TrEMBL record:
Positions of transmembrane segments: 12-31, 51-75, 82-99, 119-136, 156-178, 184-207, 219-238, 244-262, 274-294
Record keyword Transmembrane present: yes
Keyword Heme recorded: no
Annotated source species: Natrarchaeobius chitinivorans
Keywords of the record: Membrane, Transmembrane, Transmembrane helix
Protein name: Metal cation transporter
């Protein structure tokens, strides 16, 4: 028995296990509504506010990403064609997130007192981040020209892009918290749990095509990079409710995602003759549609009160 590992479990368990864990945590949050009393938030100390937002941010960001990463053993043993399809699905998730954040940029820019400054920040954030990451990628590519392309490095880039996007999620939680709106805080957490659970497999999909499984600390680090910034965003949102700041953070995240999409395509091209195959196109579309269902359908139902427990 000592020689057995997680990979020896039935594939059905590896595929459905994370779903069971997610539903259990989601149901626990949904039924208990742990943020039901924020009436004393005006009297809370700075340390108490930061601590509570750390707990909320961990539940909304770190925990669902970690649950999503539990799909790694299932993804790890997929046929290369289906592994490429999983990478394409991750790209579909990233494209949806980028489009959502572009809409957020437009909303925050329109609400800002200085719209021109918001537009400049948006352009600088997107173009500047893309340019910096592109130059870094080209330099890394020249260094690795004679070696196999590393999925682990790209996984870290994916985690970084998702982490930058997570700051924007935290901003919304922080603002709702200091306003004492417990219902909105709870709904945002539930919506982000649904949303962020797909970030886990999006991160580890690139690692799965490497020959060797990296040490566990890499998974922990990538999970914190992808989900942890929800906490940072909550801190910022509780003290600096700035439309311009939100525009800048979202713009940086969009620029990072654009570069990561190129990296994901290159990772597939390194192993396969073509990036755009029928199975990859279908997986990309499924990733986009899945995020639409989680974010715009279930998320909106939550925020509109359809799924609020009585």
């Amino acid at each position: 028995m000592s020689g057995r590992s997680l990979y020896d479990l039935p594939r059905s368990v590896l595929a459905l296990g994370p779903v069971v864990i997610l539903l259990s945590i989601f149901g626990l949050l949904y039924l208990t509504s742990p943020f039901g009393d924020l009436a004393s938030v005006d009297e809370a100390s700075t340390l108490e506010i930061l601590w509570m937002l750390t707990v909320i941010g961990a539940l909304a960001g770190v925990v669902p990403v970690a649950i999503g990463m539990l799909w790694f053993p299932f993804i790890r043993d997929l046929d290369p064609r289906y592994l490429h399809a999983f990478l394409a699905l991750a790209a579909g998730v990233l494209v949806f997130i980028a489009i959502e954040m572009t809409e957020d940029i437009a909303d925050y820019a329109g609400a800002a007192e200085n719209t021109s400054a918001a537009v400049v920040l948006a352009v600088v954030g997107v173009a500047g981040t893309f340019a910096v990451m592109y130059v870094a990628s080209e330099w890394r590519g020249r260094k690795m020209a004679s070696t196999e392309k590393s999925g682990l490095e790209i996984a870290y880039l994916v985690a970084l892009a998702l982490g930058l996007h997570s700051i924007g999620e935290g901003l919304g939680i922080g603002v709702a918290y200091v306003q004492g709106d417990a219902t909105l805080v709870m709904l945002l957490v539930l919506a982000f749990v649904l949303h962020n659970v797909m970030e886990g497999p999006t991160v580890v999909a690139a690692v799965a095509r490497d020959r060797e499984t990296p040490p566990l600390y890499h998974f922990a680090a990538m999970g914190l990079i992808a989900g942890g910034p929800v906490i940072l965003g909550g801190w910022i949102g509780s003290f600096a409710q700035s439309d311009l700041l939100a525009v800048f953070f979202f713009a940086i995240a969009v620029g990072a995602i654009l570069q990561v999409l190129i990296e994901v395509a290159e990772l597939i091209r390194f192993d396969a003759e073509a990036v755009l195959t029928r199975i990859n196109a279908a997986a990309f579309a499924n990733g986009f549609v899945l995020m639409f269902l989680l974010e715009d359908v279930l998320g909106d139902l939550l925020l509109e009160g359809w799924l609020v427990p009585v």
